[in-house]
Amino acid sequence: MEAHTKTDGQAEVINQHTGERWVYSDIVKDHFFHPRNLLLEGAKEGEFDAEGMVGSPACGDVMYMWIKVNRESDRITDLKWKTFGCGSAIASTSMFSMMVTENGGMKIDDALKIRPQDVMVRLGGLPNRKIHCSVLADKAFRKAVNEYFRATAQYERVIIEGAKIIDQRLNITDKDIEEAVLEGAQTIEEVQQKLKVGVGDPDALPEIEQLIRFYKEKYYG
Amino acid sequence: MRTVYLDHAATTPTDPRVVAAMQPYFGEEFGNPSALYALGRRSKDAIDLARGGVAAVLGCGSDEITFTSGGTESDNLAIQGVARAYESKGKHLVTTNIEHHAVQNTVKALEKQGWSATYVRADGDGLIDPRDIAAALTPETTLVSVMYANNEIGTVLPTREIAKAVRDWKKEKNRGLLDPPFLHTDACQAVGYCEVDVRKLGVDLLTANGSKIYGPKGVGILYHRRGIRIEPVIFGGGQESRLRSGTENTAAIVGLAKALEIAAAEREAESSRLTPLRDKLTAGIMGRIPKVVINGHLVKRLPNNVNVSILDIEGEAALLYLDARGISAATGSACDSASLDPSHVILALGRPYEYAHASVRFTLGRSTTEEDIDYVLDVLPEIVAKLRSISPVNLQFDGRGDQTIRKAFVDLGRPHWESNRSESRTASGRIP
Ligand code: FES
């Protein structure tokens, strides 16, 4: 990566491999250099109600998230996180944590409606290939919320994200396809390349194509 | 703000003397070297002169030098060109697992077209054993491609010994100098710091380019031993003795020759100036920051390369923090690669996945001063402390990274997505 600073103080980063330019917004910079709601010390017993941890499918990074919920109001009163991730992961998680906890905290159901794009809009944009970094926070949050639902015996509220098998022969699920799209695959060939397999069941092709379109729309649309 | 450019392995600024040499060819000397009239002839003369200069530095004949559009094209021409020309003699290639993508992906492309390849593995220091190269040779091998110095970890490979191993193998099999297998070396990173006399090295083909030696970008050279057949990869008007069609880039060629001449003249002085600075930076980082691993052999490395894995932090985030303090560096982290794959070179050292993520490369150059190094040593510890406070990863450290407990990452350091996939499969199995 080659980077230099322009006179107006906005850093412009150019990725030497992709040539992609990224003039990151002041908001991204602010959250990257001054992340909000970081958990600096280890979580103390009873300090939080639930915890969620995920690894990014795309680049192997990790996200931890802790939440505290007000049982009566169902609002999230505190959310802390830690990540082993790139600048975009740090900035987008910081922004996500702020959105969830601002104005007295969001209701769980509303917080679950925040999409990675909503975080991006508030950040003033991220490069396309960095979209999966903001999904990291989203997933960790869902895990934490599920843990909370289980811990408080609200089993009916647990979100089940079941993977559905699309290609019977190779056991490829919709999750696999989602991950491939998040890693940047745009076509059926690229998805196959990412999954390191061909398509075993020709009957599955139309559905795979449809899913690629769906996830492209969801994350990049 | 102070700016400290420490990414000379990515590219170097163009030397003003090189720019001056190129200047006329952007202006009045614009002629096409293939043209008959004086204006064209003058361009042709300039290219001939440049070719002679390059040949003098490499210790070969002018007819053994072909100009290309850069290191990548030279690698492609060497590998594809020799493989195709000697197809009838065999379709096996030998290379290593730490090559630049220009070599690695060319070999992979040939594998898709019916060639087979053996990837000799580097040891934990990032070095290649010449005996392993010899052991990989088969009667069907037509080309061996082993880099001279590694672009990421800076290790200088024993090119001379590798050339000897290949030669000895050929002798044993009663093969002459002009029988395959041939040895190609990508010397792009080495040219500024190592011996590049091709006769002394004993290589058959050698790649170099302008952008790493304070020359212009977009121009490269391929040395090829007289008598070795090469199939062109670019077809057209038959320039460069039919090996590389397309109107010659006169300005760039003149600039490359000038840059190479300067590099050769300043090689020794520059190497002795940079070595202590390199060692100061390495020692300073090791001394001030806990949990750091050096990537690549300590001594058998380029005088300008420092590559360390600073555990528990992610490299791209570190680069952005460094950038905010005016320092330009590079990383082998997956987050900074177009494919989201971590550096294959760091992984080849036998280090776990997280070490590649945490790797930071500083490459020094002509502009680097001791104050620059002091400045980096001043700001880096704070940046690392900050990023470590953000990171949930806390690897157990044994100094080598061989028995690290892979807590943060699943499946013995394998990428997450692989294991995620098997997880979701099991999960899906349970869903009716
Ligand atoms: S977390 Fe790896 S690219 Fe963003």
What labels describe this entry?
heterodimer, A: 221 residues, alpha+beta, Sufe protein. Chain: A, Arc Repressor Mutant, subunit A, 2 domains, 8 helices, 40% helix, B: 432 residues, alpha/beta, Aspartate Aminotransferase, domain 2, Aspartate Aminotransferase, domain 1, 13 helices, globular, disordered C terminus, binds FE2/S2 (inorganic) cluster
Protein topology:
The complex is a heterodimer of chains A (221) and B (432).
Chain A: E1 2-5, E2 11-14, E3 21-23, H1 26-33, E4 50-55, E5 62-70, E6 75-84, H2 87-101, H3 108-111, H4 116-123, H5 131-151, E7 165-167, E8 172-173, H6 174-182, H7 188-195, H8 205-220
Antiparallel strand pairs in A: 1-2, 2-3, 4-5, 5-6, 7-8
Helix pairs in contact in A: 1-2, 2-4, 2-5, 4-5, 6-7, 6-8
Chain B: E1 4-5, H1 16-22, H2 38-58, E2 65-68, H3 71-85, E3 92-96, H4 101-112, E4 116-120, H5 130-136, E5 141-145, H6 159-172, E6 182-186, H7 198-201, E7 205-209, E8 220-224, H8 250-288, E9 292-294, E10 305-310, H9 315-324, E11 327-328, E12 330-331, H10 344-348, H11 353-357, E13 359-363, H12 370-390, H13 416-430
Parallel strand pairs in B: 1-11, 3-4, 3-5, 5-6, 6-7
Antiparallel strand pairs in B: 2-8, 7-8, 9-10, 10-13, 12-13
Bound molecules: FE2/S2 (inorganic) cluster.
